[in-house]
Amino acid sequence: MKTALLAVFLLSTPALAFTVTVPSCNRQVTFDAPPARAIANDVNLIEMMLALGLRDRMVGYTGVSGWKTLDEELRAGITELPELSAQYPTREVLLGAEPDFFFAGWNYGMKVGGEVTPETLEPLGIKTYELTESCIHIGPKAKSSMDDMYNDLLNLGTIFGVEDRAQALVDGYKAKIAEVTASVDRNQPLRVFVYDSGEETPFTAGAYAIPTAMIEAAGGRNIMDDLDKSWATVAWEPVVERNPEVIVIVNYGDVTAEQKIAFLEGNPAFAGIDAVKNDRYLVLEYVEATPGPRNIRAVEKLVAGFWGN
Are 245 and 190 contacting, i.e. CB atoms less than 8 angstroms apart? Predict the structure, then answer.
């Protein structure tokens, strides 16, 4: 009888055996059970969920069609999942899907002082995990590192109870990066500028954005690595003065990579920039230039473009 009662007790209290706590920016978040009704915002965060095999734990996604598009690979991964909001979701939109988890970031679905934040969602029964790259918007953060993306995957693995899957994925990514960068000459890093968007003033990656880490892994140096931001607008003057040898174009939205290159080529103010003179442009898709599994593919592209491999 005692054995039977113990078995019933154990079967009725699985959450007690699961309880986990993970860091999320400046918070510690505790989960008493793996999320079963998750929502992810933006293409790169969606792809992290897919890479971990968590499609069946998702009830929808947000923040894609208002700015970006889903490529064939991503579309295939989220067949039949609804896009709940074309841009940042409201609390009402999230509540309508009855989620228990929101994977987002600051300026990746949430805004400081906005209506959708970890603090506003918690009383509604929705736990939030914040993208590490975005933590600079609410407090101090170390300079961008490939470990940011790895740690997000490992933390998600812990949250959803798939730690082994997450660790295997990260180990494979690290091995691939080591392989593709093994022959990189780091003695004279190439000067690189990341051009996201904007004509009057360019929007670019600073010290805390993942392209800085990817560029360094590939043997370059982001000429804006002293910008105390993740993504921000700067003036064109320092870009011209720092004279990048390569310009990385982020491709998304209404203005294509080809149009951005045409703008650079057609402006006399940029004629003296080495990258423009030598036609050295590399194009990264948005999902490659933001934290996620395709950062590995992006580093491969950068190594090939920087060094002709």
Answer: yes
CATH number for the domain spanning 303: value is: 3.40.50.1980
Contacts of 205 (CB under 8 A, 6+ apart): 194, 196, 211, 212, 222, 224, 230, 231, 289
Residues 101 and 136 in one domain: yes
Question: How far is CA 56 from its chain centroid?
Answer: 21
Q: Are residues 109 and 230 in the same domain?
A: no
| Number of domains into which the chain is organized | 2
pTM for the model stands at: 0.91
If asked whether residues 81 and 129 sit together in one domain, one would say: yes
Strand partners, 37: none
- The residue with tokens 């003036």 is 235
What gap in Å lies between CA 128 and CA 80, rounded to an integer? 23
Instruction: Please give the structure tokens belonging to residue 181.
Output: 């960068």
> What is the residue-level pLDDT of the chain in tens, covering all 309 positions?
444 444 444 444 444 468 999 999 999 999 999 999 999 999 999 999 999 999 999 999 999 999 888 888 888 899 889 999 999 999 999 999 999 999 999 999 999 999 999 999 999 999 999 999 999 999 989 899 999 999 999 999 999 999 999 999 999 999 999 999 999 988 899 999 999 999 999 999 999 999 999 999 999 999 999 999 999 999 999 999 999 999 999 999 899 999 999 999 999 999 999 999 999 999 999 999 999 999 999 999 999 999 985
**Domain termination residue (choose one: 147, 176, 205):** 176
Strand partners, 194: 248
The residues, ordered by sequence, that sit 6+ positions from 40 with a Cβ below 8 Å of its Cβ are 46, 48, 49, 58, 61, 62, 102, 103, 104
Report residue 76 as tokens.
């295939």
